[in-house]
Amino acid sequence: MWSSPGDEDGVGVEAVERGAQDFLIKTDLGPKLLGQTIRYAIERARQQEELEQRNRELALLNQIVRHDIKNDLTVILGWGVALREHVEPAGEDHLDRIMRASEHIEAIADTAGDFMEILDGEEQPELHPISLPSVLETEVAKANSAHADATITVPESLLPGLQVTATDLLSSVFRNLLNNAVIHNDKAEPHVSVEVETDADRVAVHVCDNGPGIPDSQKSSVFGQGAMGEQSHGSGIGLYLVDTLVAMYDGTVQIRDRSDWAGEPNLDGSVFSVTLRRV
What we know:
Strand order of the largest sheet: 4-6-7-9-8
CATH topology of the largest domain: Heat Shock Protein 90
Distance between the termini: 44 Å
Largest sheet: 5 strands, mixed
Radius of gyration: 25 Å
CATH class of the largest domain: Alpha Beta
Structural class: alpha/beta
Low-confidence stretches: 229-235
Shape: globular
């Protein structure tokens, strides 16, 4: 882009914001500078093309690997169910550990797939009305099935027509929050409840657990990419995905101690509150 002395800063900044690689000042332009600028532009374009090609290859590799992992996990989980009635009491705990580990790997593969769907999609995904009761009931049922030792509840009085502005990946938000509430729970019988509050414009969904809670020093960083708690055995991307999706939906996510949220000082656990736009 060409500019003249006086307006070069404002015009140049605007040009770069709109996608220009660089800008030149007419009074400073000479053969050497012009040649150098062209060479740099060609090199940047080449690097950009290499990056896009690498991203396409990684996306394909991710798809293949996740497909193969999920196929093998389906077989493993099927064998585990079939073995249940043949396992002696002394081996039941070992089988339970195998089943939980397999389910956890499956959840990681699903989360990785959700991330790829975001990365491969448009920069501004098209938001549309999503039935919140349908999403919550489905994800709570899945979580109860995956975690037999936990009790996970959702209100029966949800408004059947309650809708929020989101995408089909909204289910991943609550899948990760529910799994996180159970996996990191230190109680023999994890209890997780989903509470919903509404007003004219917003819907707040609270995922409450009776686990060990999250220290205040970690509350502000737990949604960071790759962040994991001291006792975490996960990949560290689940809550980052939650935060990314909720921000995409023009919503908010907040962590509080359950004792503060409920106003009862002796309660253990945390509350993850997701607020979304109501349709």
